[in-house]
Amino acid sequence: MNEKALRVLEYYKIKDIIKNFTQTSAGKDIIEDLKPYDNIYEVKEHLEETKEALMLLAKKGSPPFEGLYDVREGISRAEKGSSLMPGQLLKIANLLRCARRFKEYVNRREEEEAFRVIEDICEGLVPLKKLEDDILLAIVSEDEISDKASTTLYNIRRSLKDKNASIKDKVNSLIRSNSKFLQDNLYTIRGERYVLPVKAEHKGSVPGLVHDQSSSGATLFIEPMSLVNLNNEIKELMLKEKAEIERILSELSSKVYDNITVVKNNANIVWELDFIFAKAKFASQYNCTCPSVNDNAIIDLIEARHPLIDPKLVVPSSIYLGREFTSLVVTGPNTGGKTVTLKTVGLLQLMALSGIMIPARENSTVSFFKEVFADIGDEQSIEQSLSTFSSHMKNIVNIIHEADDKSLALFDELGAGTDPTEGAALAVSILENLRARGTRIVATTHYSELKGYALKTTNVENASVEFDVETLRPTYRLLIGVPGKSNAFEISKRLGLPEYIISAARENISTDTLKFEELIQSLQEKSIKAENDARISEGLKNEAAKLKEKYEEKLYNFQKTRDNAIINAQREAKRVVKEAKEEADTILKNMRELERLGYSSDARQKLEEERKRLKARLENVEDSMNKANDEDGEALKDVKEGQEVFLPSLNQKVIVLSKPDNKGEVQVQAGIMKISVKLKDLRLSKLTKDEKKEIKKREVSLNLKAVSSSVDLRGMDSEEAIYTTDKYLDDAYRAGLYEVTIVHGKGTGILRQAINEMLRKHPHVKSYRLGAYGEGGTGVTMVELK
C-alpha cells in the first residue's frame, strides 16, 4: 500500500489509538508494523480474530494479561546462556503464567461457542508450570530472593540472623562500658561492619580499627578489636549468601535456557494476543462491527462514521459503489462534509484491510483492493516551487501510472486550482480514463460539468452532501443519486437579499438551467424516500430470513428430541417388561416347587388364581407395548416392491424387496441386511407424516410487519411506559419475535420496577431478566415471549 494514502487518510492516527489498548511495548511494536494485508485470505482471518476477541471480551471478560511485561531483552540474554537478573526471571515467570491462564481462558466447555481462529493461535501455547513455580517460589520481587529458594540459603540467612543478634548484644555491652568515650550512646555500621562513634580525643581509650571519621573530625568510627572476629564471620556469611543467590539465579537461568524455544514461542503468541485484544478493545470503545469482505470491488458502508471525529458530533453516512455504478461524483457546498466522506471511505477501507473492525452498522461490506490512492488536501510545496494545482497533478500522474481494476482512487476537488473550463475538462478525462480501466473512484468537485458527466455516463453516479436551507447549515448527510444543488437563491433570500434582485438574477439564468435545478430538487426528495424504503425493506428481509432459519432449527431439534425420547422410552419399557417376565417366571417356578411339598386344594386354587392374575397383567403390558408400536404407523394390508415402510422391531425404515408369500412374509432390506418379516409387523413409514409436517411447515408464512427488536421508554412516566410496552409486546408477539429488549434506563429504578411488575402478569411474556454485560446492564430488561 502506498505511503501517501496511509498518511493523508490518517491511518497512522488509528494505529496510535489502538496502541493505547495494548499491555506491552511488544504489542505496540506489532501495531507499529501493521499495514493492510496483501491477500483477501489474511484480511478475512485477521478480521475474524478481532471479532472473536470482541466476543470473548463480552462473554468472558478481560483476558488474563495481569502482570505481563515486555521480556524480549531477558529472553535474548537467556538465549545466549547468560545469567538473568531477578526482575527478568520474575517477568518471564509472569509471561508463562499469562500463557497458561490464556489457554484456560480460551478453552471452552462443550456447550460454549467455538472461537476457531483464537483457539488455533492458543494451540501453540505450551504451559511450563514447573518452571513458572520454580521462579515464583525463589524470587519474591526484583530485589529480593526468597528464603525458600534453597535449603543452603535458608541456613545461611538463619546463621546470619543469629550472628547479627550476637554482635548487637556485644555492641550494646561495649557501649555501656565505654559510654564516657563515645559521642553518642549508639552503634552504627560502616562498610557492613559494626563500629562505635568515639570522640577523637579518646581514640586511644577504645582499641580497635578506625573505619571512618565525621566531617568535622571530632568523631572517629572505630571497630573494637573484640568485634573484629564477629564482623568477619558476618562478612563471610554475607559473601556466602551472595554466592548462593548467584548460584540460584544461574540455575533458574539455565532452566529458562533449556526451555528457551517454548518460552520464545509462548512470548510471541502472547504478544500476538495482546495485539489482537487491543484491536478488540478499540472496536468495543468505538462501537465497531466486522464487515464482510469481497474481491468484486463492491463497497457498501451502512451508517459509516469517521473514527477520528467526536462520536457525539459525527453524522453517519451510507456510502456504496461497485454494483450499479463504479464511480461516484460528490458535489455540494464547502464545509458540507465532502472531504470527510472521502476520508471515511478510504480510512475504513484501510482499517478493514488491516484486520481492524470498522465504525459502521452490521452487514457493511468492503472490498479487497491491492492499492488505495488518495489525492486529498493542499500539497503545495514552496521548496519545490510547486503550486497547488501542480502538486495535485503530480500525485494524479502517479495514480494514472499505477491504478488498475484492483485499485480504489479518491480525489478531493479534482481539477481545482486552474481555469474552471480547462480544469473541468481535465477532470472528466481523468475520471473516464480510470473508469475504463475498472478502477473504483470517489471524487468530490465544484464543477457543474462533472454533474452532467455523471448523469450521462454509464457506471458513473452523482452524489451530494445535503444542505438545510432553513437553518443555512449543512446536515453532512450523503445523498447518492442526486447531484448537488447550489441553493444560492434560497440562501440569499434567507439572508435578506431583496426579492427584486433575486428575480432579476433568475431572469439572467436560462429556463433550462432553472428546470434542471427543479429536477434536482424533485430527484433529491424521491431519492431520499427510495433509499430509506430500500434500507427498511432490506432490514426486514434479513430479519425475516434469520427468524425463519432460527425457528426451523428449533423445530428440527424439537422433533429430533421427541423421537429420541420415544425410542428411549420404548427401549426402557421393553427392558422393564423383560425383567418382569423373568421375575414372574422365577416366582412361578418357586410356586411349583412349593406345590410339590404338598398343599391343600384351597391353597393350590389360590396359587392358580395368583398365577393367572400375574399372567394377565404381563399380557396387558405387552398389549400396551404393541399398541404403542402400532401408533408408529398404520398397519399395512399390502405392499409394493421398492416401497419404504417402517419396521417397529428394528425401529428403522426398510425397503420392500418382494410381494408377500403364502406365509404372509415379505423380504425387506434394512441397511445392508436382507431379512424376511411378517406383513402384519410392518407399518406405514413415519416419513410420510414427517413430510406432511415439513410441507405444512413450509406453508407457514412469516409475519413481515416492521417490528423492532427493542423499545425505548426513556423519558416517559410510568403510565405512558406501561401503555407503550403493552402495545409493543402485542406487536412483537404477532410478528413472531422470540426475544425483545425493553430500554428503560438506570435512573432511580422506579420505571424499571413498574415495567417488571407489568411483565410479571403479561400474557405474552414467558420470562424476563435484566440485561447482562454487553446488553445494557440494569438499564434494559430482556423479555422472552411465549
Are there runs of 5+ residues with pLDDT below 50, and where?
A: 379-386, 687-704
Indicate the structural class. alpha/beta
Mean pLDDT: 79
Overall morphology? flat
Query: What's the Cα radius of gyration?
Result: 43 Å
Task: Write down how many β-strands occur, each being a DSSP E stretch of 2 or more residues.
Answer: 25
* CATH topology call of the largest domain: Rossmann fold
Blueprint of the fold:
Elements: H1 3-8, H2 11-19, H3 25-32, H4 40-60, H5 72-79, H6 86-106, H7 116-122, H8 129-138, E1 139-141, E2 144-145, H9 151-177, E3 188-190, E4 193-199, E5 208-213, E6 219-224, H10 225-258, H11 260-285, E7 292-294, E8 299-304, E9 317-321, E10 327-331, H12 338-353, E11 365-367, E12 371-375, H13 388-402, E13 407-411, H14 420-437, E14 440-445, H15 448-456, E15 460-468, E16 473-480, H16 488-494, H17 499-508, H18 511-596, H19 601-630, E17 644-647, E18 652-656, E19 665-670, E20 673-678, E21 683-684, H20 686-699, E22 710-712, H21 718-734, E23 739-743, H22 750-761, E24 765-770, E25 780-785
Parallel strand pairs: 7-11, 10-14, 10-15, 12-13, 13-14, 22-23
Antiparallel strand pairs: 1-2, 3-4, 4-6, 5-6, 8-9, 15-16, 17-18, 17-21, 18-19, 19-20, 23-25, 24-25
Helix pairs in contact: 2-3, 3-11, 4-11, 5-11, 6-8, 6-11, 8-10, 9-10, 14-15, 18-19, 21-22
Could you list some keywords that capture this structure?
single chain; 786 residues; alpha/beta; MutS, DNA mismatch repair protein, Chain A, domain 3; Rossmann fold; 5 domains; six-stranded mixed beta sheet; five-stranded antiparallel beta sheet; 25 strands; 52% helix
